[in-house]
Amino acid sequence: MSRRSGILEFAVLGLLRESPMHGYELRKRLNTSLGVFRAFSYGTLYPCLKALVANGWLTEETGSEPETAPASLTGRRAKIVYRLTPEGKSHFEELLAHSGPDAWEDEHFGVRFAFFGQTSRDVRMRVLEGRRSRLEERLEKMRTSLARSRERLDDYTLELQRHGMESVEREVRWLNELIESERAGRDQRAVDPAERNQKDTSGDTGGLPRRRGGSRPDSSDDTTT
Amino acid sequence: MSRRSGILEFAVLGLLRESPMHGYELRKRLNTSLGVFRAFSYGTLYPCLKALVANGWLTEETGSEPETAPASLTGRRAKIVYRLTPEGKSHFEELLAHSGPDAWEDEHFGVRFAFFGQTSRDVRMRVLEGRRSRLEERLEKMRTSLARSRERLDDYTLELQRHGMESVEREVRWLNELIESERAGRDQRAVDPAERNQKDTSGDTGGLPRRRGGSRPDSSDDTTT
DNA sequence: TTCGTCATGTAATGGGTTACATGATTAC
DNA sequence: GTAATCATGTAACCCATTACATGACGAA
Q1: Do A223 and B141 lie within an 8 Å CB cutoff?
Q2: What CATH fold (topology level) applies to the domain B6-63+79-107?
Q3: Domain of life, per the record (chains A, B) (predicted)?
Q4: What is the second-level CATH architecture of the domain A6-64+79-111?
Q5: Which one of B117, B153, B212 has the shortest CB-CB distance to A33?
Q6: What is the residue-level pLDDT of chain B in tens, covering all 225 positions?
Q7: Exposure pattern of B168-201 as b/e (b: 16+ CB <10 Å)?
């Protein structure tokens, strides 16, 4: 059961592959590490976790001593730590390899990209190129529709259109760079992130431009939610 | 009745203010002129139109001769042309002036911007500045969360983050330009778009950079590498 | 002791899509 | 004459949010 919407499921499995976590933390990770794009609420996340457990892809581990507490007195609402099962792991790997045409859509693409470190180069290439051609289609549509109605539109609408197109063009250029450096880099197979910390960080992860430094990270303050 | 989701309602009223239209055409306009962002389906649009009629903001006009056709024989499924009523018009103007804090959110902002030609400069300023500060907040959050987890993340996630931030920074710069030129331009009151075609097109619409030139990537700035 | 954050959950609701059903008009 | 596109609509479903309910833990 549960055609539980791919994207969240995918992201959860991917994050849990790195290390076990409880729901609350998971959600924060979704909204930061990946979450430039999407902010999921508890009302979405918790039911999804239950479903994944029901599918055998996760196990729940309550942090409290095993059944010592009567659960009725001072019930000690335990942290529930979710851990990926082997089935879950292989299911995630299937999803990773799949790369169907949904994978080039806006939100999907972002999440896919976030887990690129765990994919093989040919999958990365397929996703990047798929995304690029999707954007090029979109660009084409924008261009023609703009050409058809240029006279009819006021300056603001025109400026909006122009800015929109420019953004898409930028993303295409970005993809070009990425594709280029994937092509140049040596093939790098999927890496199990659970073992990543032990290994050296110096290794090439596949051929990223390694530009680093776009905007200053100032290490000072913390966020108020 | 009908807390019919603001954004579509707003866009429909705005488009119909320019000229009466039937649903099908309306939808196309939504997905081109405004629709760089959102693609609404008929399943959304038609019920919405009905609701707007029920509210007295639109009238339906079936194109066929007034009741001459029996409607049973060759029923001639007529085009239904929707026209803004005076009540609808004033309701739209209320919405335009309102500019609550929803107006700076991603999709909302785009639609608001598309109708800037029909607003006064101070409303435009409020929306632009609201949008900008919303983006700056977001940027701040991204920066700190990135700073907190930079070491933990692999190169792809990092690159994704970087690209995301760069996009937001770009939009902020765009807004800065717009705000600047609004400030410089003379005040321009709302223009009834129904009368726009008769008037001269040469007039300043409020102070846009008037850059025009489709999708030229401007040669000046590039990444702040 | 109260406030903020951590932590888990559910029921009601909302906003939208998909798939379907129907038929007219135009272009080839 | 048939395919594509124009044109209008509905019902079933889906995904996710909101608001609510509960409660522990740490710091002021």
Answers
A1: yes
A2: Arc Repressor Mutant, subunit A (1.10.10)
A3: Bacteria
A4: Orthogonal Bundle (1.10)
A5: B153
A6: 445 678 999 999 999 999 999 999 999 999 887 766 678 999 999 999 999 999 999 999 986 544 444 433 334 457 899 999 999 999 999 999 988 888 898 889 999 999 999 999 999 999 999 999 999 988 988 888 888 888 888 899 999 999 999 999 999 999 999 999 999 986 555 667 776 655 444 444 556 765 644 444 443 333 333
A7: bbbbbebbeebbeebeebeebebbebeebeeeee
